Amino acid sequence: MAKTMIEFQHVKKDFGNHSVIKDISFEVQEGEIFVLVGTSGSGKTTTLKMINQLFVQTEGDILFNGKKIKDYNLRELRLNVGYVLQQIALFPTMTVEQNIALIPEMKHFKKEDIKRRVDQLLGDVDLDPEKYRNRHPSDLSGGEQQRIGILRAIASEPPVVLFDEPFSALDPLVRNQLQDLVLKLHQKLKNTIIFVTHDMDEALKLGDRIGVMNDGKLLQVATPKEIAQNPENAFVENFFSATVGKNLYKTPIEKIIRTGFEIPEPHEAEPISEINAKDTLEKAFAAMAEVEILKVVDEDKSTVNWVDRASLFRYLSETKH
Fold first, then answer.
1. pTM surpassing 0.85?
2. Looking at the domain 4-244, which fold is it?
């Protein structure tokens, strides 16, 4: 049975006479990516900031690893919660190595361990340590800076990492690359991630479960498949449809699978072809010129799932334009 890492119990947050969060309760399990999604002003960032107590709740309790957050020493709490912002906030006078090493040094890691950790992390995100460790943030592109921001947040291997709309200011290509990076690092580290975004596409790609917020309320918490097939109300349905209706033929196959359009493994006699999970719906139809079934594989050529022409047409017909 999964262990609960973060729990909100009837949490409310007021700023003056204005109620921003209106009695929300939910749990985040250890090792999952939990995505909070909603329009601007829905309360998702306020909810995130209460986890590391940048905002203190007005009512209710928040538990971190079974213990009330208010009972933690604030410094201890924040050292065990990584935080990645949209405004990357790297220290400009520090090198890449110094930025990444900041929290491990505060937690008194050994110097040789820190140096080894920095080089390992840079290699994990395809940045050559020899070329990058002594550079300053001003020498980096926006995507490179955000990579360093992520590494700084995970360098001490905190059990929980918070992402506050970290990629919204980046171009689509870089954004997609960094989403892939989050998934890659999460698969390796198995940490618990709470990720805030206003983009349902991003939520569907990253989230094990998704919480949809509007006007300070948590409307639905469910898997991507459940939200796609059984939205709680008209707001959730419309919010979902407004995103998935964009550029349909450019939709990655992995996203279609996550929303539930899949088929059982075919019989050996059936002719099949193969497609990468990151390939698009357009490419899938081209690959089906002579076969009915596609085996969907990941980067390691392991089978992820199966799709057929009928399932893809169903996806198109059920997606609002």
1. no
2. Rossmann fold (3.40.50)
| Residue 145: predicted pLDDT | 92
Q: Residue 269's pLDDT band (boundaries 50, 70, 90)?
A: low
Q: Write the single-letter amino acid at 278.
A: K
Centroid of chain to Cα 158: 16
User: CA 308, CA 163: separation in Å to the nearest integer?
Assistant: 35
pLDDT tens digits along 187-223: 999 999 999 998 888 898 899 999 999 999 999 999 9
Residues of the chain with CATH 3.10.580.10: 248-318
Averaged pLDDT for residues 281-304: 85
pLDDT at 224 over 50: yes
Does the structural domain 248-318 have CATH classification 3.10.580.10?
yes
Beta-bridged to residue 296, according to DSSP, are 275, 305
List the structure tokens of 173.
């290509």
- Where, residue-wise, is CATH 3.40.50.300 in the chain? 4-244
C-alpha distances in Å from residue 145, one per residue of 91, 174, 184: 11, 11, 18
Q: In this structure, are residues 133 and 97 in contact, taking their beta carbons and an 8 Å threshold? A: yes
